[in-house]
Amino acid sequence: MNRKAVEEFQEWIKQNLNDPLTKTLLENSSLTKTQFETFLIDAFSKQYHSTLSKSEIKTMLRLKGKVSRGAFNRTKTQAIRNIIKAIYTILLLGYVGIFDSSKLDPFIELSQKLDSYIKEIKSERNYEKYNWIARILEEELKEALNFNNRKKKKGV
User: Fold this and answer.
1) How does pLDDT run across 98-144, given as a tens digit for each residue?
2) E strands, the chain, in order
3) Coil, strand or helix: which one is 82?
4) What is the pLDDT of residues 17-29, one digit of tens each?
5) pTM value?
């Protein structure tokens, strides 16, 4: 096992989990933090370093420490199931025409902003600017979520 690769990968996971946008998106997703962490490990460990691709190594990459292979696989299965359900929900909403609705406009606009800002920041490697934009996008996301929740409560 490559201890340095494990530590670097765990640091990468920490950075992702502590990212303000990731936190906001995760809080409002159908994934738990542990499911998301496990999914990241499973999806990216092999690309990060070839020694991290074995299942017994993946069980040691979780930030809270080693878990059994069974626990890791159960959590991964739960994450994948939740992701698949979210995709089916999006497909269902598209099928019945919800995506043509103006109710989704704030989310579509925010998604487009997020995509263009992140591409720009990654190309510049300006992490101070990233933090500033992340805070703005986080506020806009919270505002969009609150706006739609207020509409639901009012019965609009």
Assistant:
1) 777 777 777 788 888 878 877 776 676 666 666 777 777 778 777 77
2) none
3) helix
4) 988 788 888 988 9
5) 0.74
86-113 b/e (C-beta count within 10 Å ≥ 16 → b): eeeeeeeeeeeeeeeeeeeebeeebeee
pLDDT at 73 over 90: yes
CA distance 49 to 44: 9
| 152: its two tokens | 């639901």
Own/partner contacts of 134-142, CB < 8 Å, gap of 24 or more, are 134/19, 134/20, 134/21, 135/20, 137/21, 137/110, 137/113, 138/20, 138/21, 138/24, 140/110, 140/113, 141/21, 141/24, 141/25, 141/28, 141/110, 142/24
The answer for residues whose C-beta is within 8 angstroms of residue 57's C-beta and 6 or more apart is 1, 6, 45, 51
